[in-house]
Amino acid sequence: MASTPLADPAVATEDELVKETSTLTVQDTAEAQLPPHRNHDPQHNMKRSDPFQFGSRYLQEEDDVFEFNAWDHVETDDTYKEYAEQQFEKQRQSPVSDFDKHRFNSDPAKWWNLFYKNNTANFFKNRKWLQQEFPILDKITQEDAGPVTLLEVGAGAGNTAFPILAHNKNPKLKVHACDYSKEAVKVMRNHEAYDINFMQADVWDAAGEDLPPGLEDGSVDVVLMIFIFSALSPTQWEQAVKNIYRVLKPGGEVCLRDYGRGDLAQVRFKKGRYLEENFYIRGDGTRVYFFDRDELAHIWTGAVPAKDNADGDEKNADADADAGEPSPSSSRFDIEELGVDRRLLINRAKRLKMYRCWIQGRFRKK
């Protein structure tokens, strides 16, 4: 069935654009897919128990796509792909000016400060799905979990940290919630649930030279990165990964969720928002990048995609490892899970089809 052309509202933040849809579908060839089923059977419409394998609503040929407001495991159709490519080409032809490129890239914290000045803490919904998406968060908040240090990078207004603390039963859990916006940190520190016994909110640039306040090398058990890696410039990825590597304990875990290539938010961008391929400026001045799975695997583990796997890259990775300098090109993290969450959201009133694409992963420090 052909896609209806999309409307052209201003590009919104993730929490505005989607009302926290929680069904995760992972398209990973390493995992067997569940067989399709009839979607009218109530037993198949329950929330999934394994976020990396279970998706309950498959779109089959005989289904009416407008019968439900969301479908799992849905690849984009040919009409949408053609429309998206047309949009991308228009974006490339009307990039951000050199002046604006410097203005937005030179001080990204400035734009996030303005963002939080213009929006209250209630702008975001609490991310209640976190424990289901990342089971480690449920484990470390149990009463008998023992001493655990959790670092959230890009904590924003605390819509991730505060729900975690609200469900916490572990008296020895400490959450370090960091953001490079001082206004965001202000919002967290003024929140009624802010308790210095369990939470410390600080300004920190994830791509800077220093570690977060109060944390040392090898002091963190879990790092949480929810829609934050995409806010960094590609030139900042290497330093950010080095910092995460430094602060984690051996065997420590990174939990990441971010934007996937071809997501509706990317397709909607119009003239004057294109910084470089897959990297954009929103209307509020904040930046966003859209990843694919192989790209993230390379950034975090040094795994080179087949088409780019050259001897030179492997030698560079070996040299970095020998020098003891963790970087995206050195294999310092193992992939625990890495999948693409594809959903088809339906506006049944307007009969619009909206393709969303996120990437979710867990990486473990060797």
Report on this model:
The structure is a single chain. The chain is an alpha/beta fold and 366 residues long. It has 12 helices and 11 strands. The strands form 2 sheets. An 8-stranded mixed beta sheet has the order 1-10-11-6-5-2-3-4. Strands 7-8-9 form a 3-stranded antiparallel beta sheet, covered by helices on one side. A hairpin with a 4-residue loop joins strand 10 (333-347) and strand 11. Helix 4 (108-118) packs parallel to helix 8. The longest helix has 16 residues, at 78-93. The chain is globular.
Question: How would you sum up the major sheet?
Answer: 8 strands, mixed
SSE succession: HEHHHHHEHEHEEHEHEEEHHEE
Spatial ordering of strands, largest sheet: 1-10-11-6-5-2-3-4
The parts where pLDDT drops under 50 for at least 5 residues are: 1-40, 45-54, 306-329
- Average residue pLDDT: 78
Measured distance between first and last alpha carbons:
47 Å
Question: How many helices in DSSP terms?
Answer: 12
Q: Over the alpha carbons, how many angstroms does the gyration radius reach?
A: 21 Å
| Tally of DSSP β-strands | 11
Beta-strand percent range: 15-25%
**Overall morphology:** globular
Helix content: 25-40%
Could you say which structural class the secondary elements and strand pairing correspond to?
A: alpha/beta
Function: S-adenosyl-L-methionine-dependent methyltransferase.
Protein name: tRNA N(3)-methylcytidine methyltransferase
Family: Belongs to the methyltransferase superfamily. METL family.
GO molecular function, one term: tRNA (cytidine-3-)-methyltransferase activity
